[in-house]
């Protein structure tokens, strides 16, 4: 979550910063906190003290007992209305102002109510409420004038008190709006951080699955071919058995090395090729080694390439070509054992690279080998991510078989 600091917003109270950093998950109106109860109690006490002072002044100027009693009752009612100012700020301020027309004992309650309205009402409604409070206080000055204070002075004092209450309330309102904005920003930042982490995790998983399939499927197919040969030819010469066992051992060792390489690269994507004990990533320059390995496993493979300098091909593009050929050879061994495989690579800088992997129909019965087609789907995704395209399907020639065709960009 994005943290809201006091250095960034020095005018906010610590409690406001805490609310901004830890938003209320329930939303809507908050329940009164201990701080809210304390503020409401102080506001009620202030209004009561002002009312008591006004009633005492009424006795000093020899007001009748009935008037003093009415002031006491109406002042108490206005003070009690303040407990509803959080839920109904406009109604509370207007009611206190209307009561204040006939008694000056509500002066403190009116100031507190106008302050509460300024905290919670938009500017247009606040202007109407404050205007009504000023009109009511002006009428009260005409109905119950104080003989010790000039009428103009009384009017100015009322105006100044209402302006101070309104301005202070608007300041508190703007601060609370800022806190709400910071709270929303913190919630949005937390959500976005979670989405970014989830997307990064998903991308890493897809990369691991794609690389593991492309690399391990090739090695494990070699293991399967030679293990099957040993199973169906237990009477083979010892030299052939020894050679097959060596290929199985080497393929298993290569599979483990490839797996370590994949995990290492994905854990440290910024490392250079070959750094940290990892072997170099395959490129177009290492395609000959892949073809030779397939030939040693018994697959008849022909490679035809006219790329003048395989090392000049961009590393990412060359690696994609390598994976396409690797997947094509793996599928040929699995689904068309004994078939001939032709690999053609053509391209120039600016024209792009064209890769064709074709295998003829198998000479004998096709064994049932489990497969989900995810390898070809992964190749299509890999080619698309590289800015190219890939298609695959049955071969168009009279020999049938299967063909994979891909085009990849090669900038000039």
TrEMBL record:
UniProt name for this protein: histidine kinase
Domain Histidine kinase/HSP90-like ATPase as annotated: residue spans: 319-410
Enzyme class per UniProt: transferase
Protein encoded by which gene: narX_1
Alphabetical list of Gene3D superfamilies matching this protein: 1.20.5.1930, Histidine kinase-like ATPase, C-terminal domain
Reactions mediated catalytically: ATP + protein L-histidine = ADP + protein N-phospho-L-histidine
Keywords: ATP-binding, Kinase, Membrane, Nucleotide-binding, Phosphoprotein, Transferase, Transmembrane, Transmembrane helix, Two-component regulatory system
PANTHER family, A to Z: NITRATE/NITRITE SENSOR PROTEIN NARX-RELATED (PTHR24421), NITRATE_NITRITE SENSOR PROTEIN NARQ (PTHR24421:SF10)
């Amino acid at each position: 979550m994005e943290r809201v600091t006091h250095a960034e917003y020095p005018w906010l109270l610590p409690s406001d910063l805490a609310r901004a950093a830890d938003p209320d998950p329930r939303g809507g109106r908050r329940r009164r906190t201990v701080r809210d109860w304390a503020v409401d109690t102080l506001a009620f006490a202030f209004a009561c003290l002002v009312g008591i002072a006004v009633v005492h002044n009424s006795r000093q100027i020899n007001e009748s007992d009935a008037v003093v009693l009415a002031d006491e009752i109406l002042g108490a009612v206005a003070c009690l209305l303040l407990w509803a100012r959080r839920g109904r700020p406009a109604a509370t301020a207007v009611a206190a102002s209307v009561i204040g027309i006939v008694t000056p004992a509500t002066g403190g309650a009116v100031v507190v109510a106008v302050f509460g309205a300024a905290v919670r009402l938009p500017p247009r409604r606040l202007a109407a409420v404050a205007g009504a409070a000023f009109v009511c206080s002006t009428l009260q000055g005409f109905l119950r004038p104080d003989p010790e204070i000039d009428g103009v002075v009384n009017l100015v004092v009322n105006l100044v008190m209402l302006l101070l209450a309104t301005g202070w309330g608007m300041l508190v309102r703007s601060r609370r709006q800022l806190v709400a904005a910071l709270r929303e920003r913190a919630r949005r930042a937390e959500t976005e951080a979670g989405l970014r982490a989830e997307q990064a995790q998903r991308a890493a998983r897809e990369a691991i699955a794609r690389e593991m399939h492309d690399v391990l499927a090739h090695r494990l197919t070699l293991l399967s071919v030679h293990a099957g040969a040993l199973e169906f030819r237990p009477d083979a010469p010892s030299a052939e058995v020894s050679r097959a066992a060596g290929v199985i051992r080497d393929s298993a060792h290569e599979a483990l090395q490839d797996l370590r390489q994949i995990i290492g690269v994905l854990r440290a994507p910024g490392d250079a090729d070959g750094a940290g004990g990892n072997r170099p990533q395959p490129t177009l320059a290492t395609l000959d080694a892949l073809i030779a390995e397939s030939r040693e496993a018994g697959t008849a493979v022909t490679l035809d390439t006219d790329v003048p300098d395989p090392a000049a091909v961009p590393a990412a593009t060359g690696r994609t070509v390598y994976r396409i050929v690797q997947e094509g050879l793996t599928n040929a061994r699995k689904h068309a054992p004994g078939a001939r495989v032709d690999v053609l690579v053509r391209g120039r800088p600016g024209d792009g690279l064209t890769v064709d992997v074709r295998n003829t129909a198998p000479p004998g019965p096709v064994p049932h080998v489990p497969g989900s087609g995810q390898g070809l789907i992964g190749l299509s995704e890999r080619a698309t991510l590289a800015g190219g395209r890939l298609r695959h399907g049955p071969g168009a020639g009279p020999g049938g078989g299967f063909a994979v065709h891909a085009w990849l960009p090669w900038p000039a």
